[in-house]
Structures are given as C-alpha cells and as structure tokens.
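> forwarded from #structure-qc
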C-alpha cells in the first residue's frame, strides 16, 4: 500500500520530477531562472545554462540556492546561438547525469526593435542566430538525446502571433521555432516524447522592464482581461505542468500565458 505521501504509482506527489534530469537554457536570470527553481523544487536535477562570463556569478548563485534547498544542479556555460557549443552542452548531460528527460528552450530575446525598412542584414542575422537557428540546432540535439517519455518545451512570445511595428525579425524567429516544435512533436511521438510551446505575454523581468516604457506596460495591462502582466512564476508553473507526467496527452500545442489578451 502506498504511504500517505505516495500516489498509487509510487511517485511522491510533492516531488513529481524526482529522478528526472532537466536542461534549462538561458537560466541565469529572468523566466529561465524561475523555471530552473520550479523544476528543482519538484525533485529534478537541473542543468542551468548561461551564455558567457558576465552571467557566471548569477548562474552559480542560482545553483547554490537550488542545492541549499535540497536538489541537484550545475551551471554550464554555452552560447545557444553557436551550434558547436549547443552540441557540447547537450552531449555532456547524458555523459554526466546518465540521461536527459526534460529540455526547456528558454534562452532568447536579443530583439532588434526596428522597422522592416530599417533592419540591416546584420540585425536580422543576429536575431535569427539565437531565436531560430540556435533553437533548431537545440531541437535537433534534444531529438537525438531525449530519452523515452521525455519533454521538450520552447518558450516563445506573444509577439510571435501578435507582432507590432518594430518586431518583425524577433516575431518571425519565434514563429519559425514554434513550427519546428510542432513538427518535432509529431516526429518524436512514437518515443513517447512530447514537445510543446509556452508563449508568454509581457512578463516582469529586468530585461522586459529595461526594454519597455511605463506607458507601453500600462497599455498592455489595460488591454489584458486579468488586468496584469505575468510574473515569472506564472510561466514557470505552466512549464512545470508540461514537464510532468500529467501533461502526457498534450503534444504540439502552443499555450498562451498572457492573462487572456487574445
Ligand atoms: P532575460 O531575463 O534576458 O533572460 C534570458 C536569459 O537568456 C538570460 O540569462 C540571458 O543571458 C540568456 N541568454 C541570452 N542569450 C543567450 C545565449 N546566446 N545563450 C545562452 N543564454 C542566453 O529574458 P526573459 O525576459 O526572462 O526572457 C526569457 C524568454 O522568454 C526569452 O526567450 C524571451 O524571448 C521570452 N519572453 C519574454 C517575455 C517577457 O516579457 N519577459 C515575453 C515573451 C517571451 P544574458 O543576461 O547574459 O543576456
């Protein structure tokens, strides 16, 4: 008989991700850091990816916090815009932790806010490097390395489906990656792996606050049925659901976490 803290399948309901190994890209701060905390709180071993030396202190502080709270984590530096670094990041996880169960492709942004007429080739390539090409290479690596029953989750943006002036390259890159995810969702289903997209609306992170005016934020809040922007925990909770076994029949979906701003 299962004890009071066990479900009928023997899983401790307070630690539904115990024994799973997760990678979260771009996890040193913002939404990614909150996702790493959330998965670790449910028992997952978490690889906290960060891009460069400037984020190494934040990444190691997050790892220390997770370890202090009783889970396993490590910080791994890799630029998710650079294919060889992406390959190395993914390949070391099964080598070090025995397997890879959950991949959250969160690293993104670096948006160039310019009209299409003003966008240079370099601007376009920079946005595509991280938000489309890097994601494609990461999805390839995940497709090869995720084990049976794995979970692949991409953090898109409401801008992908609701672009506004100045966002073409970023919106186009995000919508392209949504298409990669919906394709791989069908290709991996026979291995019991699901792939889904979480599409946040405006979410309170340092980066978002530095890139938007108070007037723009007030406009979004005013137009949002729930009357607020998202907090990072709102996004992390949805990712946590997708990462677990109770989301088993969800595949190839785009879940909009935007307070009802349709
Ligand atoms: P953030 O606070 O800037 O966090 C992004 C993280 O990714 C940072 O740790 C960043 O490191 C890292 N990163 C950047 N380039 C990278 C690279 N080449 N390789 C590895 N890591 C890299 O951004 P956020 O607001 O949390 O956004 C997280 C995700 O949500 C992004 O994909 C973004 O497009 C999406 N999103 C955000 C919002 C929002 O309103 N916040 C809304 C919709 C979608 P650095 O700090 O060194 O750059």
């Amino acid at each position: 008989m299962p004890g009071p803290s066990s479900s009928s399948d023997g899983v401790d309901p307070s630690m539904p991700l115990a024994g799973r190994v997760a990678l979260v890209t771009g996890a040193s701060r913002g939404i990614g850091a909150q996702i790493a905390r959330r998965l670790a709180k449910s028992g997952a071993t978490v690889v906290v990816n960060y891009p460069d030396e400037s984020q190494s202190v934040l990444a190691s502080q997050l790892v220390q916090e997770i370890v202090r709270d009783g889970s396993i984590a490590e910080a791994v530096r890799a630029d998710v815009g650079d294919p060889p670094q992406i390959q190395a990041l993914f390949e070391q996880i099964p080598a070090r932790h025995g397997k890879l169960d959950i991949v959250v492709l969160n690293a993104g942004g670096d948006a160039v806010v310019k009209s299409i007429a003003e966008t240079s080739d370099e601007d376009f390539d920079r946005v595509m490097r991280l938000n489309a090409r890097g994601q494609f290479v990461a999805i390839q690596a995940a497709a090869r390395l995720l084990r049976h029953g794995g979970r692949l989750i991409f953090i898109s943006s409401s801008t992908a489906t609701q672009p506004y002036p100045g966002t073409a390259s970023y919106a186009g890159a995000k919508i392209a990656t949504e298409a990669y995810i919906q394709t791989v969702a069908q290709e991996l289903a026979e291995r019991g792996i699901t792939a889904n997209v979480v599409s946040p609306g405006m979410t309170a992170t340092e980066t978002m606050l530095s890139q938007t005016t108070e007037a723009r934020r007030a406009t979004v809040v005013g137009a949002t049925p729930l009357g607020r922007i998202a907090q990072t925990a709102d996004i992390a909770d949805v990712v946590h659901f997708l990462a677990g076994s109770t989301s088993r029949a969800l595949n190839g979906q785009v879940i909009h976490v935007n307070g009802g701003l349709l």
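QC bot note: DSSP finds eight helices and seven strands in the chain. The pocket of NAP is lined by residues 25-26, 28-32, 49-51, 54-55, 79-81, 106-110, 130, 155, 157, 200, 202-203, 205-208 (CB under 6 Å).
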